[in-house]
Amino acid sequence: MAALLRKVWESVSRSSKATSESSDRRVVVQSSTGAFSHIPFDVFMHILQFLEPREVAKLSLVCKYWKFLVSDNQLWLYLLQKEQNQPGSWDSLVFAETHLQMGYPLLTFNDQMPQLSFMHIFGRRAKAPGAIIIDGGSGYCKYGWSKYDTTTGMSATFLEFGNIETPIYSRLRHFLATIYSRMHVKPSAQPIVLSVPICHYDDNESAKASRRQLKETIHSVLFDMNVPAVCAINQATLALYAAKQTSGIVVNIGFHCTSIVPILHGKVMRKVGVEVVGMGGLKLTGFLRERMQQQNMNFESLYTVRSLKENLCYVAADYEAELSKDTRASFQVASEGWFTLSRERFQTGEILFQPRMAGVTMMGLHQAVAHCMDHCQSAAITADESWFKTVVLAGGSACLPGLAERLEKELHGLVCPSVANGIRVLPPPYGEKSAWFGAKIISNLSTFPGSWCMTKKQFRPKVRRNLMVTIFN
């Protein structure tokens, strides 16, 4: 094997030397691999896989035939896969380069997809600048660098900076300056991908104006801080990308409420309608706290209750059947000791489906999702109804074991048979950090920042146009 590789490099060296000695000489296009021509093609490609990517790329300089060989997509798919260390990162890479490479708006048909050269993709990804990622969240913020395996820190959301009377610009600037300071990064160093909270749900003019104002404020703050390029995208869409989907319904169980967001080809279908349920992670934690107090359990803070919720609670596939089981389990909270829960373990998650257990009158989660599916079907946006049959869960409380299976079961019993066929509910692919990882997928694209980001030069004229529209309407 070593002798074969030496022959490869000898042929590269001879070619490079000949080129330098007479640059005006015509390159002779060989139709074979010389000393390697007797080796079967698959064996030859297997030999190339032992080389480093840079070394393989240099072989394309030998002649056109070598360039043709080493440009093989299967070879570079293998080399790309070898570079990916995280579980699931390979599938995410292929999804991103296939569906997201051209930026927004996403390509919708396979015949629109460009023919990909994974050799070029490998090279561009190696040179991609990466980005600072800030996922605002609704409970707390996750931030980090896209080239790292995961987030590097957490903080309060920007809504908790300043007080309610503080202008949104000042609160955002304080918030972002704090994050950059904690990361020890200059804002001008790299682009940023920032998740935008799911808010102003309606499709009326007032809600549109509020969303536009929020985005313009985000861009203004960041460009005033000299950030080179900004990608501001909503959390539901990022969670969908993290699940390697471009269309579906995202059920985001936030801190205060749950939003059910229909998305088609990366665009939120506000005309179909975003459903909102006033039940979020804080309500679940509060319910468990009340149950623990009824059982005369002593604890010092809400953090203890949240830790127990995250480590002991689950959603029962059949609530009535679960009541007859022994479900006791214990968990040790640092500095507080051991806690044992029984029915509270599955009753906490059950209030998502039976809100009346928490003294609240509203639709259950399954009913809200079914309602959204009915609206998607009635809207008849596209002939293919499969786009809304994939449901992706997002948010910290969406990580409760059994939630995806229970929701899928309930939906099959609620919607009509034609819609029920093909429904699938996916748990959060990266837990509570799904939106952050969705942003990571975008910011590590071979074409990033490209059409995903807006620069200061692009932003100023857009603001002026929006201002003129507002004045003359």
Automatic annotation (TrEMBL):
Residues 33-79 form the F-box domain. One of its GO terms (cellular component) is actin cytoskeleton. It holds the Pfam family F-box-like. InterPro entries: Actin, ATPase_NBD, F-box-like_dom_sf, F-box_dom. It comes from the Eukaryota. Belongs to the actin family. PANTHER family: ACTIN. This is F-box domain-containing protein. It comes from Vitis vinifera (Grape). The lineage of its organism: Eukaryota, Viridiplantae, Streptophyta, Embryophyta, Tracheophyta.
